[in-house]
Amino acid sequence: MGFLGKNTCLIHEKLGSGLFLGVALTNLEIEGLTGNVPAPEPLFGVTARRRRPPKRVAASHCGSCTRCIEACPTGAIAPDGGLDAGSCISTWTIEWRGQTPTDRRAEQGGILFGCDICQAVCPWNQRAAANPGPPPVRGEYGPLPEHTEIKLADLLELNDDIFRKRFRRTPLWRCHPEGLRANAMVVWDNIAVGGLP
Ligand code: SF4
Ligand code: SF4
Q1: Could you read off the pLDDT of 106-153 as tens digits, one per residue?
Q2: Is the pTM value of this prediction over 0.90?
Q3: Are 5 and 124 in contact (CB under 8 A)?
Q4: Is residue 120 lining ligand 2, measured as CB closer than 6 Å?
């Protein structure tokens, strides 16, 4: 499907790393997949119904690029690639229950949830974004209109009911209301001390 970049993301040569992996398990008959009819070709590069795993991992196409390593605000990416997840802002703001480690809060800067700087700077993603026309329809990954503006002060006092109503079915659901409040508090403090990069 692609190669692993130094930022440890799976990178597809046409889609970059902005993709979802998925699988559907079903006992339903699907047109085009029954009997001896060959499976339809997938849109991008994947070999359908592969019988054996690929013999080797695809070679990296990062080359001499080090953009993600240089851009990472916390130095989480090793010089030759590989990630220290315990130093990653996405881990702190999405996966951990509680706040970013005290001695590293300044590095979070103004980031409220997630990070992905290492993907934003990747030339494979910039090339994919410049690719005209569907698929994929990139606008469909944009924020819903009701989420285009989120006020930091509101999040500091966000109660659990409002969180449930507003953020169910959004990625922010993953960090729970207490996580979002904690993230907002770190950003608020960083702004207060002028710590934003
Ligand atoms: S998501 Fe952010 S903090 Fe984590 S490795 Fe990428 S650039 Fe660094
Ligand atoms: S930014 Fe450069 S080094 Fe990092 S994953 Fe992308 S191509 Fe590889």
Answers
A1: 999 999 999 999 999 999 999 988 876 555 555 666 777 888 888 999
A2: no
A3: yes
A4: no
- Lookup: tokens for 197: 């990069």
pLDDT for 79-104, tens place per residue? 999 999 999 999 999 998 777 899 99
Task: Give the integer Cα–Cα distance in Å for 18 and 39.
Answer: 25
DSSP symbols for 174-185:
GGHHHHHHHHHH
Q: Which residue's C-alpha comes closest to atom 6 of ligand 2?
A: 122
State which ligand 1 atom lies nearest to the alpha carbon of 68: 7
Burial class for 68, CB neighbours closer than 10 Å (0-12, 13-18, 19+): buried
CA distances from 44 to 13, 19, 29, 37, 48 (A): 9, 11, 23, 20, 10
Residue nearest to atom 1 of ligand 2 (CA): 122
- Give the DSSP H/E element, type plus range, for residue 11: strand 10-11
* 54 close to 45: Cβ distance less than 8 angstroms: no
Backbone angles phi, psi at 12, to 5 degrees: -95, 140
